[in-house]
Amino acid sequence: MRTHGVFDSRVHPQALRVSLKAALQGSLDFLGLALDDHDLAGHPLRWFHPRTVPSAPRVLRHRIGRFLRRRAAVARLAYRIHNRHLLRFLWWRLGPLMGWLAEHLLVDWGE
Q: What's the pTM value of the predicted model, to 2 decimals?
C-alpha cells in the first residue's frame, strides 16, 4: 500500500487556488494510476508553533520538541522564497545535499 497526497498550505494566500483533486490526478497520471479507482480521505494538518498550547515546556525540551522547532524555523525560511527559478535550482541542483540535511537535521528517526 502506498499513500499519495496533496494539500494547500496557503502559505502564499495571494496565489491562485489550485484544484487539489486535479493536482493529485496529475501526480497519479505520472504513476499510471486513476483517481477514480481509489478512495479519497482527508486528514487535517496542524501547523506547529512553539507558543501553542500543545507546545508545553516539557515537550519543547524533549528531543522531538527540538526537531519540531528546527523544522518550523527551516519552514519559515523556505516559505520566504518566492522565486520559482531559485526554488528549482535549490531542489534540482542541490537536491542530494538538501535531502541529506533534511534527513540528518530535520527528521527524528528515533534512537
A: 0.49
